[in-house]
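Lab notebook, bench 4. Still working through the backlog of constructs that have no structural model yet. Next entry is a single chain of 243 residues. Request: give me the structure tokens for it.
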Amino acid sequence: MISISLKKELSAGGFFKVKHLKVVGSTNDFLKALPQNKAKEGFVVVADEQTNGRGRLGRTFFSKKGGLYFSILLKPSEEVRDFLTVIAAIAVCDAVREYANDVGVKWVNDVQILGKKCCGILAESTENLKNYAIVGIGVNLGNTDFDESIKDIATSVNADRWELLGEILANFKALYQNFDKVKIAEEYKARCSVIGSKVKVVQNDGEEYFATAEDLDEDCRLVVRSEDGTQKVLSSGEVKIII
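Model written out:
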């Protein structure tokens, strides 16, 4: 059943058009396969279940039936393109805060509740659709039966799927259409849970080291100081908070 918040968002300016699928390999891949003449900014595909959900760095995103799995097709400017993950993280974080306490963003793309991941975000470009980008969002809903490999680090949101979708889309559209780099960087920093923490940095090339997360710069890159006192600015990779 379509919720009030989703109905409101779909009727507000006509930016989003939602297609609902029962099962799909990946909502991102579904949009990537669209022919050029079918592509339109604001097209959203939502699936009850993904059989090949993907996360960053080629990881599997567990997408059991009952979660909220969707992707948005966008045609952003170059400046906005670099902030799509940040915009999505803020949008999801603020929506989830309506249902849970202690919600934050673990740099760069995980939304957490009490330090456990409830949402992953994957922004991608596509060669098939020139000038378009895709933002995929997966939120665990009401699920406590997690795979053994993630049960200690994952959690879920107790929310109506369609209601939450409407709230996330409304938040995303407001940030995307009224893009303000300075404001968005400030909003993201205010929600970032790693600043001030001891972290383990895992870079894309496999290098690992311990550091302190000190700040975010104006491009939402993470500023860390390694144990030897060297300050580094991270634009990719992963950090794990050391308890």
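Notes after review: The helical segments are 4-11, 27-32, 78-81, 84-96, 161-177, 181-191. Residues 37 and 129 are 9 Å apart (CA to CA). Flag for follow-up if needed.
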